[in-house]
Amino acid sequence: MKIPDMQRWVDIWNNSDFDLFIELYEVSAIMFSPEISFVKGNKNIAAFLKNQVDKIDISFITEEIFTDYGIVYEEGTYQYKKNDNQNIISEGKYLVIWVLDIVEKQEEAKWRIRCHIWN
């Protein structure tokens, strides 16, 4: 099974397919963002991200990935740019914790984000 990385996230963002964010994040996932203290739950995270898509362009650059028994720790740098003029709004580091989640009535497990932090 392929090790996940934030390119999946960026592809969903660039295609504005926010229902896929619900599938990408674990049901009880938590996100810490520079704009807010935190968002909890995959549906709330998807709603938060949907409100941001017209405002910013986001990129994540993976620097390291560590795997450990069904958990992947991914760290790197991120950058936000304004959609209208590409001025940098924010940049810094990120950490994502992916977990291998067995989906009901499916034989194959899926990688989902449990915790997503950037600041």
Automatic annotation (TrEMBL):
SUPFAM superfamilies in UniProt: NTF2-like
Highest taxon in the source lineage: Bacteria
TM annotation in the entry: none
Residue span(s) of domain DUF4440: 7-100
Matching InterPro entries: DUF4440 (IPR027843), NTF2-like_dom_sf (IPR032710)
Protein name: Nuclear transport factor 2 family protein
